[in-house]
Structures are given as C-alpha cells and as structure tokens.
Amino acid sequence: MYSEDGVRELDRQECLRLLATARVGRIVHTYHALPAVLPVPFCLDADFTVVVRTSAESRLAGAIDRAVVAFQADEVDPAERSGWSVVVTGRATAVTDPAEHGRLRRTGPGSWSASRHDIFFRIEPELITGSELGARRVLHEARRTS
Question: With left for phi above 0 and alpha for psi between -120 and 50, is residue 41 left, alpha or beta?
Fold first, then answer.
C-alpha cells in the first residue's frame, strides 16, 4: 500500500527487476574514515549479485575490496515526480577467477575507460531495500476517482 509521504516500499523481487534495467549506480564506501559515493557501471549477474567494474589501480578498488558497501541505483523523473530507488548492502569481493573475469569482460558492465587492468567486484546482497517514488500522486488520483 502507498504511504502518505509518496513513497512505497518495494519487495525483493521488485527491487531485483528494477536493478536489472539500470546500467549506472552509486557505490557508497568509506574513504579516510568518511563516507564516499562514486558512480560506477554495473550489472546484475545471473546469481543476483551486483557486479561493478573499475580500474585495478583506482582508489575505489583499494577501498572496497572485502569491505561492506552500499550500492544504489535509481531512475527518477523530476517532471513527473516519480521513479524508484534500490539499495543493496553487502560485502564487495574482487573477482579473481580468470575464467569468470574473462566472462565478465565479455558480458559484464561496460567501463568508463577501457583498460586491460580493469577489475570486477561482486557485491553479495545481504540486504536489499527499495522505494517507488510518486505514490502520493497515485494515491491522490485514486481518492479523486472514488
């Protein structure tokens, strides 16, 4: 049901369905003991893990390896005051298996700047939460037609 604040909670299946439609998200990690947020290319793999691609030499790679991170993707239409947002929380681990790395180079997320030194991280979802935005408009319209 829609709440009065215009936000409806999404269940896990709805969250996964929406994540599969996005190509860019934000990874939230710790940098110098402070929260940091960085946009990254990603995909949702067949096992429902979030796969992120970055340069092996990046600060991000060093900051998230084996760390608990949050990952957020969304789609918002300001003109319509609607959209969705999904947050995945879990441990990020580097993909080290050569065969898996090769598969992800072919089928995984794109890269901001293609490099032979790209690395992939899997975020194993321990918690998935999501919200549909714009529920107030839908609720208001439903009340008008009743």
Answer: beta
